[in-house]
Design goal:
Radius of gyration: 17 Å
Number of helices: 5
Number of strands: 12
Helix content: 10-25%
Strand content: 25-35%
Low-confidence stretches: 191-196, 198-211
Number of domains: 1
Order of helices and strands: HEEEHHEEHEEEHEEEE
Largest sheet: 5 strands, antiparallel
Shape: globular
């Protein structure tokens, strides 16, 4: 009901809740490490242009940063309308599956992505970040440079950040090595414990916070 109130097409498939892209929303999918870094850059800049990283002006993240996490993937929700393709190309699909290629997957034209709550799934979907000032999504074309810069920075793996001049930033942490492949940047902080949307009749969509 909350997704319907937002106008986002949603449905169920094999008992899993999914968002349907192409008509109202598009979604840009990146590996968790790249998405975590991109979201933190966006939150840090508050949408202002970042000359150091070569990033353009972005919308206010308090309105536009909507991110779903599912396993080792992050899904950035954007307004539909910019996708330049109408069908997939087999050659492109094979290239995008190469481990040495940084890829942003642009979901549109009826592609489906997992939506919270994802209870019972192997990689349950959950909100990594939701807008807390009302929802005004960015255009996906505006987010491409942000996500591309983040993907290039983690191109050597989730435990390395490639910086200008060939410098690598790597973790030097105490304790025993972790078994997971989680991002070196750590989990994306949630604003005030936000886990979903609260919708009241006649009100603007707002973030719902955990107790």
């Amino acid at each position: 009901m909350a997704y319907r109130a937002l106008g986002w097409p949603a449905g169920e498939h094999d008992g899993r809740l999914e968002l349907v892209t192409g008509s109202v929303i598009d979604v840009l999918e990146v590996p968790r490490a790249a998405g975590t870094l991109a979201a933190r850059w966006w939150l840090h800049s508050e949408g202002a242009a970042d000359e150091v990283r070569g990033l353009p002006t972005l919308p206010d993240p308090r309105h536009a940063l909507a991110v779903i996490a599912a396993g080792e993937r992050l899904f950035f929700i954007a307004a539909a309308g910019d996708c330049p393709w109408h069908a997939e190309d087999p050659v492109t699909t094979r290239t995008s599956s190469r481990p040495d290629v940084a890829v942003i997957k642009w979901h549109s034209n009826g592609s489906r992505i997992p939506a919270p709550p994802g209870k019972g799934d192997a990689d349950p979907a959950e909100w990594a970040h939701v807008p807390d000032r009302g929802v005004r999504l960015a255009r996906p074309a505006v987010l491409l440079h942000l996500l591309a810069a983040a993907a290039a920075t983690v191109r050597h793996g989730p435990q390395m950040l490639a910086l200008p001049g060939g410098v690598l930033a790597v973790p030097a942490l105490g304790g025993q090595p972790r078994q997971s492949s989680a991002s070196a940047a750590g989990p994306l902080p949630r604003p005030h414990g936000a886990v979903g949307f609260r919708l009241s009749p006649g009100s603007t969509p707002q973030a719902r916070t955990a107790p």
